[in-house]
Amino acid sequence: xxxxxxxxxxxxxxxxxxxxxxxxxxxxxxxxxxxxxxxxxxxxxxxxxxxxxxxxxxxxxxxxxxxxxxxxxxxxxxxxxxx
Length: 83
Prior knowledge:
Elements: H1 2-25, H2 34-53, H3 56-78
Helix pairs in contact: 2-3
């Protein structure tokens, strides 16, 4: 009887662990990585303008355009996702 009870309690404990793990997986991620899109847009805009024109002024203009494109991407594509 004692062996059967221990086996039963062991199985219940395993199921509880599985349920706890599944609950931890579904926790909401509160970290915001919105800044990544701005930095990526800035760097890619500067790099693209520098390669195409070779001018410092156009590189700054490309950085501004990259920031704008990063903001548009963040506002339209990323915010529309449902997690």
